[in-house]
Structure formats: C-alpha cells, structure tokens
Amino acid sequence: DAGVTQSPTHLIKTRGQHVTLRCSPISGHKSVSWYQQVLGQGPQFIFQYYEKEERGRGNFPDRFSARQFPNYSSELNVNALLLGDSALYLCASSLGVAGYGYTFGSGTRLTVV
Amino acid sequence: DQQVKQNSPSLSVQEGRISILNCDYTNSMFDYFLWYKKYPAEGPTFLISISSIKDKNEDGRFTVFLNKSAKHLSLHIVPSQPGDSAVYFCAASATTSGTYKYIFGTGTRLKVLA
Hints:
Chain A is mainly beta. Chain A has strands at about 5, 10-15, 20-25, 30-35, 45-50, 55, 65-70, 75-80, 85-95, 105, 110.
C-alpha cells in the first residue's frame, strides 16, 4: 500500500522565484492538508482541501495557494519566494474532512537562497 | 500565541522504564488531540488520539491521558524501547469549528538509553 507521496523530496530555489510542490494522498483518501515545519518548531497549518474545495486556510500570505485535482492529488504553490519560506512542507491525507489521525508524507525540504 | 505547548524540549529515559511526555493547551474549544512521533528525514507518524469525551485512551505500550479542567494531556510509553527515540508532537483541533486544522506543539525529543 502506497502511503502519502510527496515530490520533490528536496528543492533549492532563489528568492523571488516560484515553486510548486506535489502530493498524492493514500488511495481512497479525499482530504489533503498542507503544513509548513520550520526547524525547531511544530508543523503549522497552511491549507485543507476536501473533495477539491478549500475547507480551511491558515495564517499564511496570499503568495501561498493550493488546489486539489479530481484524483484528489494536490499542489501547493508559493510565489515570490522569501528566505523565510525555507522549511519542510508536509502533506497529510485523510478519508474524510475531519482529518482524524491523518497520515503524513515524508515532506519536501525547500531551501530558498 | 502558542495554543499548544510542550514545555520540555528533551527527555532521556532508561530502556524498560516509563516515558511521560506532557502537553498543555489554552483553547477550550479543542476537542480532539493527537500524538505523532517523527524520525529525522521522515514525516510525522500517527501514534494515538483522544477525544474530549474521554480521559484515557490506550493502544499497546502507548496511553494518552486527558485532563480537560487542567487543559493538559500526557503520553505514557511503557516500557520504553530504544526504537522509541524520536521527536514527539502533540496536536489539537477544534473539530466543531468547521475547519479541521491541527495546532501542533514544538515537540519533545525523547532519547531512550539502552
């Protein structure tokens, strides 16, 4: 059984560039959530999508956007990258919208230079 | 404003003994709580959850206790094993709010000594 898969695993970008991160949920899971984890901190909620609709948004600027596709995979887009966007970006999937005990992927490590 | 706090950044325990990890929260709307553990270079792995209608949930070596009046939860691992060495995060959600986001603590690094 494939778990939550995220791509790429590592990424280096320059300030001002744009980045797209991808997530494939566990088969049958319809909800995808995105989190940002900065070194030494716990994950911080960015977005939740359920059945292709945005169901929640955290305190992140409009440079962050996301979408969910008909196959329930998801993309997280970040425009005009700042040094402070360097972090581990985690995707989590769950069966339903409530996200009880959802499963995380291994994350994408983004470094902005 | 840290709504979920793990005040001990690290904990060392001898193999076979009990590990107790603590978590405090401030938002009385939180009604569902999770514990995750995280190894380096991996995503967090779900361990155990508890709803606010319970005060205890057990799964094998892992037990979570919830004290709603104190806004405190704890994770007990008995007996502790070297493979339990990881960073442990507690997370809380206000499921009635309509947005199912989890607020995570900053984590406690557990080291189980052989």
